């Protein structure tokens, strides 16, 4: 099957993204299972701790480097990735299903004329062929798919593939200085919500809904989040009311998340909300209506008033 | 300026999904189909752009006879004309992208608007695929869009923030929520749309590159326990999270 696997590693501000480490680890597992080789590629300028990726089972990484590549540019990154992929003669390409991976993977699929399977939550070897499982209809169904083409690109949903044990190996880093950069698509600025964790990258999410009644009441949600090192999320009702930014919306028309812990406060659990969060490993619901559908997916629930329970939760968490 | 907007016809997000007996697709019985929610933002942006710069908006959809419902809605909102690429086959994203791109080549638009994602297969790649086939610039998951001559300034959502992008026409833009507030079709719009013809085209398609081996329901999460109904349950909740779930 695979003669070679290439994992695309993503950096932002010179730091490797956690979702890419998951991709490396999963790629290394597949490489072992199929007795093939794997290597990684990264595009950027100064990048920290590149040889660290050895810990995840990938022993070689090529760094395509230029100061103009510090920020992501879909045109520049696509062009470089394409020539790298063509030269490598690899037949399996792995990306994280992130804003960046989601741009580059389909571009590569067209240029290499090969199959693409996005947002995989499982990727396994069966009869020497890769079989992927991915959610469709917002997780209301799963499809198991195989590629018929010689080369295939897979993108992996962040936070699903576990990293598990890591070794203390170091990777060989090959730096290639890039002379020319295609900036027909150029990022002219990046606005980060300072100090805030994005829901798609968080291990714990604390979300609030219409049950919180007013935007100022999200103060207590933020406090729980900060005590737990969590991101804050919201239901569409809270976003549509203008209480929270859209970037926090979890659900079918918001973000799909699978953290270790999802705490839903004053959220009824409409099908579109569940679609975005039901694959979380643990779910806690706080809702005063004991018949709210959110309790149907919750591991632990408290069927009571959030305005009483959340302050008590804050006190309890401060104790430790 | 010529503008194309791609619209898809998908199951309503509130629909319960059941697997068909072939175990490879969903059972459409009783399922309400609607215009893909993100495509409404794409239509609105196409119409707004036309209102500022003049030109025409062509609605493009690939699918079955049923897609006409979504096309009619697009026309009622204000699109000038429409093309339906007729097929009853289940096609993968690459094949759909090639067919859409082929038709877009005939139309030769400066701008193509799409939704960032179809809420059926949730692929989120059609815009990027089409842009790469056509060699157009791309801004995906756009939350703002501005045109100044040939120059595009747009914002797109990324993890934990936003990027502002500068690029140029011709381009494909995929719409994220927040880009605009889609308009409702006016009564007049609905009447006018009734008189517009939808141009239908048969398409030749290539083989799918990926095949669905099986479609199945996810293992349903079992409901856990309700620990209590007031603040006195909080210490027990925290203990369970620490000791049983080990997540905090
Ligand atoms: C096309 C489409 C896409 C959609 N996409 C999304 C999406 O991506 N994400 C999403 O979330 N929704 C989405 N929705 C909306 C969804 O259908 C629901 O309307 C929404 O999730 C409801 O938000 P909510 O649970 O905050 O509000 P409600 O349903 O109003 O629930 C509020 C809950 O708070 C509880 N409550 C009230 N007071 C208290 C209190 N003092 N203490 C504790 N609990 C209290 C109530 O019992 C109730 O259960 C979509 C809908 C459509 C049509
Ligand atoms: N069959 C189709 N006909 C027209 N447009 C489509 C079709 N499928 C996808 N699209 C467009 O591509 C966008 C993204 O779809 P997807 O990549 O399939 O999630 C949608 O919001 C539509 O604008």
* Coarse morphology of chain A: globular
**Total helical elements of chain A:** 7
CATH fold call of the largest domain in chain A? Rossmann fold
Q: Give the assembly state of these chains.
A: heterodimer
State the fourth-level CATH superfamily of the largest domain in chain A: HUPs
Strand order of the largest sheet of chain A: 7-11-6-1-4-5-12
Q: What is the mean pLDDT of chain B?
A: 96
Could you spell the SSE succession of chain A in H and E letters? EEEHEEHEHEEEEEEEEHEHEHEEH
The CATH first-level class of the largest domain in chain A comes to Alpha Beta
Rg calculated over all Cα atoms of chain B:
22 Å
For the termini of chain B, the CA-CA separation is 56 Å
Structural description of this entry:
The complex is a heterodimer of chains A (320) and B (248). With 320 residues, chain A is α/β, with parallel strands linked by helices. Chain A folds into two domains: 173 residues, HUPs (Rossmann fold), CATH 3.40.50; 116 residues, Rossmann fold. Chain A is built from seven helices and 18 strands. In chain A, the strands form four sheets. A seven-stranded parallel β-sheet of chain A has the order 7-11-6-1-4-5-12, sandwiched between helices. A five-stranded parallel β-sheet of chain A has the order 15-14-16-17-18. Chain A has a three-stranded antiparallel β-sheet with strand order 8-9-10. In chain A, a hairpin with a 4-residue loop joins β9 and β10. By secondary structure, chain B is of the alpha/beta class. Chain B has one domain: Rossmann fold (3-Layer(aba) Sandwich). In chain B, α2 packs across α5 and α3 crosses α4. The longest helix of chain B is centred in the N-terminal third of the chain and has 17 residues. The chains are: A alpha/beta (320), B alpha/beta (248). Flavin-adenine dinucleotide (FAD) binds next to α5, α6 and α7 of chain A.
């Amino acid at each position: 099957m695979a003669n070679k696997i290439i994992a695309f590693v993503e950096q932002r501000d010179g730091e490797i993204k956690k979702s890419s480490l998951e991709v490396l680890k999963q790629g290394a597992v597949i490489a072992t299972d199929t007795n093939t080789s794997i290597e990684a590629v990264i595009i950027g300028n100064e990048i920290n701790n590149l040889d660290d990726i050895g810990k995840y089972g990938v022993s070689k990484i090529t760094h395509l480097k230029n100061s103009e590549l510090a920020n992501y540019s879909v045109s520049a990154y696509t062009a470089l990735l394409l020539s790298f992929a063509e030269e490598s003669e690899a037949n399996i390409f792995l990306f994280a299903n992130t804003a960046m991976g989601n741009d580059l993977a389909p571009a590569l699929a067209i240029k290499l004329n090969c199959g693409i399977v996005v947002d995989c939550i499982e990727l396994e070897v069966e009869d020497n062929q890769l079989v992927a499982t991915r959610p469709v209809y917002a997780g209301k169904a799963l499809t198991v798919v195989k590629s018929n083409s010689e080369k295939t690109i897979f993108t992996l949903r962040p936070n699903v593939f576990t990293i598990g044990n890591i070794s203390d190996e170091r990777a060989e880093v090959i730096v290639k200085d890039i002379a020319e950069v295609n900036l027909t698509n150029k990022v002219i600025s990046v606005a980060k919500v300072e100090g805030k964790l994005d829901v798609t990258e968080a291990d714990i999410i604390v979300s609030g809904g219409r049950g919180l009644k007013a935007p100022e009441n999200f103060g207590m949600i933020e406090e729980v989040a900060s005590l737990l090192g969590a991101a804050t999320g919201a239901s569409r009702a809270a976003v549509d009311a203008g209480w929270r930014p859209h970037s926090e919306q979890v659900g079918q028309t918001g973000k799909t998340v699978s953290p270790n812990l999802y705490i839903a406060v004053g959220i009824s659990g409409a099908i579109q909300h569940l679609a975005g969060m039901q694959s979380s490993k643990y779910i806690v619901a706080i809702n005063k209506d004991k018949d709210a559908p959110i309790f149907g997916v919750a591991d632990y629930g408290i069927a009571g008033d959030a305005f009483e329970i959340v302050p008590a939760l804050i006190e309890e968490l401060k104790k430790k | 300026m010529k503008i194309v907007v791609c619209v898809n016809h998908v199951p309503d997000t509130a629909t319960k999904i059941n697997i068909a007996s072939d175990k490879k697709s969903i059972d459409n019985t009783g399922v309400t189909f609607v215009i893909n929610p993100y495509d409404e933002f794409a239509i609105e942006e196409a119409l707004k752009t036309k209102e500022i710069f003049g030109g025409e908006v062509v609605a493009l959809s690939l699918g079955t006879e049923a897609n006409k419902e979504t096309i009619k809605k697009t026309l009622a909102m204000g699109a000038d004309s429409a093309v339906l690429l007729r097929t009853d086959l289940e096609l993968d994203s690459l094949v759909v992208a090639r067919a859409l791109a082929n038709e877009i080549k005939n139309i030769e638009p400066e701008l193509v608007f799409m939704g960032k994602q179809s809420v059926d297969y949730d692929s989120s790649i059609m815009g990027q695929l089409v842009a790469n086939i056509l060699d157009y610039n791309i801004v995906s998951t756009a939350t703002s869009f501005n045109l100044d001559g040939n120059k595009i300034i747009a914002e797109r959502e990324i993890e934990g923030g936003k990027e502002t992008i500068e690029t140029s026409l011709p381009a494909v833009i995929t719409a994220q929520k927040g880009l605009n507030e889609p308009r409702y079709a006016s009564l007049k719009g609905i009447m006018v749309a009734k008189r517009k013809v939808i141009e239908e085209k048969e398409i030749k398609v290539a083989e799918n590159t990926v095949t669905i081996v099986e479609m199945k329901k996810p293992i349903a999460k079992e409901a856990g326990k309700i620990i209590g109904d007031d603040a006195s349950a909080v210490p027990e909740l925290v203990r369970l999270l620490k000791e049983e779930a080990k997540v905090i």
